[in-house]
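Problem 12. The chain below contains 315 residues. Write out its predicted structure in token notation.
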Amino acid sequence: MALVLHTSSGNKNAFEGLIAAEYSGIKVELVKDFQMGVSNKTPEFLKMNPIGKKLDTLVKNVSQALLCRFLSWRLLMVLFLKAMRLHDMAHIEQWMDFAATEVDANIGRWLYPRMGFYPYAAVSEEVAFAALKRALGSLNTHLASNTFLVGHSVTLADIVLTCNLYIGFLRILTKSFTSEVPHVKRYFWTMVNQPNFKKVIGDVKQAEAVPPVQKKAAPAKEQKPKESKKEAPKPKVAEKPAEEEEAPKPKPKNPLDLLPPRKMILDDWKRLYSNTKTNFREVAIKGFWDMYDPEGYSLWFCDYTSTMMRTQCPL
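Solution.
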């Protein structure tokens, strides 16, 4: 009897269980047309899992992370036959925690606000970016002398870490970023091209650019129909004598008021510039070009006329 997994087909968390199932020889089927927020609210689904999380129908109340471990039991038994040591299993658990708390979490804190899932804050992005670079730097050092995370073959740790790196490579980890961690880059492409990985994930294309910050449009205000009021008859005003002074003429409008509204808000750029303490080129300069509006502003290159001006800070 095949296991049935209730989740969407492109869910990277589901990839972990499906790849583990391929290595374990366990058949797993996906529910067709599963929609998170719709399918998991039906009475039939809530009967299987009252909290409405994605699960497997054979092992009730099992989340995808635990399902991944369940499907890997057979794989672990095979590893035991290969004289796998207990501390190797501890290392597997250690790398799985590393993948979840250091890699997956920081990729999400960097990516999801830019996709509009959470409020964007430049300071929070800077912290996540620095933490992710630190984690991948540590991983790069380990992989400099290791093909796999633990031992000399694929383990559950490799499956979990690769699936967590997958969303990063697909969405935000550009080639210029991964060029600083070549062993992580080599490791990822080695893993996703393994037959059991490729059967589940398919072909992977690396992101070409960091996605811009999504700005939510302000909801349009409903215009209430104006009530037609009957105008009261105006009293007749006596004609003024010609000798009285004429009323002052309205002041001419400023020509700048006639320009169309500008998309770039200078205060947003100033705030990003002043709050960026590290990774200035990746955060502040990149943010400037994302905000820049060539129709409303122009850039000028200026030459200093004296040596004194070059030594003074403009801020």
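Discussion. The chain has a mean pLDDT of 78. Students who got a different answer should revisit the alignment rule from Section 12.3.
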